[in-house]
Amino acid sequence: MRKQRIFSNVIFHFLLLIAAGFILYPFAFMISGTFKTDLEMNRHILRLIPEEITFDNFKTLFNTIPFWKQFFNSMLVSTAAAFFTMFVDGLVAYGFTRFEFRGKGALLSFILATMLIPPQVLMVPQFQMYRSMGLFGSYVPLVIPAVVNASGIFLLCQIMGQVPKDLYESAMIDGYGELRIFLKIAVPLSKAGIGIQGVLTFMNTWNDFMTPLIYLNEESRYTLPIGLMRLQNFYKISYGAPLAGALLSCLPVILILAVVGQKYFVKGLMAGAVKG
After folding, report:
1. What global pTM score does this model have?
2. Cα–Cα distance between 24 and 20 in angstroms, integer?
3. pLDDT at 183 over 50
4. How far apart are CA 190 and CA 168, in angstroms?
């Protein structure tokens, strides 16, 4: 039995190493390509260690597009989407777990059913709606669809449902209003789930390509994914500059995950889990 356990552990960790290699290799390829010339990328595309390190790709990146302007645009849109998602989804989940009202189950089921609708189906009607409202070319269409998230509401309902009702009643006796109860009791006790919802929304909005492509029509308002796309054209294909931009665009997400930490991230994902 002991030999079987050791053999199973060896096989398990070997498979983990293979999976980690598949995950980390594209990131290593991106870092390597950032410091390669286009000639070396064409000749030795899979080689991870550059023959000659160059920083010309960063110069090309900054000279071709307004990188830092578009970086700020992405940061603004992603931060706004994450903040409003945490607040709105938290309020909705608080309402579902705090109050009892007729049609509560049907309304929650309807919200969850929206997860079955493919986003591509909504592109045309959303575009027509935002254009008729005069919001074409603004950041509103990029933020509003991310605010009400059915999966986030469901997650937060599971978490806030575990908050003891006695705490709410004690707060009401002390004269707290519902908004103050939400901010002072529900949010602190559900911060793991609210935080992970904000992180996931930030990452999805930061990496979103299709929505900015549809609604933004000025280069000064482009987000980073659209700006990096414009590094390529029909007459010239460059590898180094887009990889340099992709490397810099990864930094905010890496920084957020480093601040949040693996423990907090897993805690947020597992919050509300039912013990068997």
Report:
1. 0.83
2. 6
3. yes
4. 14
